[in-house]
Amino acid sequence: MKITFYAHASFRLEADGLVVITDPYTPAKSGFDPIEESADIVIMSSATDEFHSDPSHVKGEPIVINALELPPEGTEVRGIPIRSFPAYESKTFDYQSEFGRDPDANALYHFTLGGLRVLHMGDIGNPVAPEHLDALRGQVDVLLALTGEHATIALDDLDEAIKAIGPRVIIPMHYFSPRGVLKIEPVDRFLERFPPESITRVGGPELELTPESLPHDGPQVYVLEQSR
Q1: 56 domain-assigned
Q2: Structure pTM?
Q3: Considering only CA atoms, which of 163, 150, 166, 144 is closest in space to residue 215?
């Protein structure tokens, strides 16, 4: 599977002749450039968050999936099994005064592509629910992890989720970019929690993984550069 980090929580994942794009942002609101590449499937963690739910700049005629609308047992789209785990943004962050809105419902979502089981953390702002952790335990090869704090999951709670789920690979997302407008934490805050030998700075936005290339001794963190 070829993974390309666009920006924020948006990735392009390509394998088996299919392209999946996750959580596309609104360029005019986020500060990031349009994606302007085609996809077969776009998965969004909600349909209401301008930083996670704007497929208008994705080319082609993708099937657009709002993870919150999936049935509890999940579904299959073009041969890809997708299951969602409903969540919320932070219930304590002061949305009313700063953004004039309530915390949004969103979802983590799990799908399999290229023989790899991927979990995207959506925009969750609270600890992952125990029932979700139980369902995901040992079922994730690649975790696309929220690492910027500030209205998303606290790093201590993320540590607990990683420990419970047991991903083989972690790819940080939703961290500070000088191109973005959000004042969130830099990725180094998250990386400080791992031994140096478990961190690989890829030096660009792209990474290729196969089931055979997955590490066996603890999770490996691959840091991709945001490309939009």
Answers
A1: yes
A2: 0.93
A3: 166
